[in-house]
Amino acid sequence: MLSVENISLKFDKQILTNISFAVKENEIVGIAGQSGAGKTSLLKIIGGLADATDGKVFLEGKRVVGPALRLIPGHPEIQLVNQDFALDNYQTVQENIKGKILHLPKAIQDEFAEELLDLLELQHTKSRQAITLSGGEQQRLAIARALALEPKVLLLDEPFVHLDTQLRFKLINYLVALKNARKMSVIIVSHNSEELLSLSDKIVYITDGKIKRVASAHDFYYQYKTVGEGRAFGIVNRLKLDDKTIYFRPDEYTIPTNNQEGITVHFKNAVFMGSYYLNEFLVENNKKIILLNKEPLQYVTRFNIEKKGKNR
Length: 312
Known about the structure:
alpha+beta, Rossmann fold, CATH 2.40.50, 2 domains, 6-stranded mixed β-sheet, globular
């Protein structure tokens, strides 16, 4: 459906180099990478809001052009939500949403606007001017406006940064349901690895302006190619065993029933994280490792590593 082909971007230095990937209909693609990797610039190029130095973007076989070739930048079937928000500051929240759906019959406009106000928990602000909203409320309104247009492709740049946990999960569930119902494609940039892992059908991992890997969320978590890649998506323990260095996730372990078997550890503390405990242990040479569990593991003196994916 959407094809990104050999996109490169250069200013004073090279930002992006030969970025290529495809996004299918009804697919959520996450883009991960360190700060300054050019992820936001890439979204703007995909949305037709910025020009690439080289390369092309196609939506359903037709080229998406940037400002150099289009009088009004942007593509009608691609919507970007970023930190600029692009709201009509002196219109009310409700007017901001309805302004995007004026082509619909009045009754449907009202119903759809109310649905979005409820979803983004903006009912209490519906009569306020957008300029009076907090940063988090403005972000939610920007998302509502983008969803109102029912685009074929939705681009989200750090969309959950101002949202509390409950609203974040509510919106994630809505996006998953929406892309299935409307066959919409979504590309999301986030520094939060948990968001990308929970949302993405596949992840594009960019370092130094180049794609290093495209794989499923499961593979990035359990089958990372390098330690740096692994740590971009969560905690990686490092342990030296029989002169061999082993890397493993905090959930890749078992507790032996025989207390004489396994790797010796000394419990240090447990931190409650809500639905689980982050248990910190010391192994030989006071090396720290983390094991996740639904309860504190202060009784554990030994454990075994049980890998869930082949890596390193």
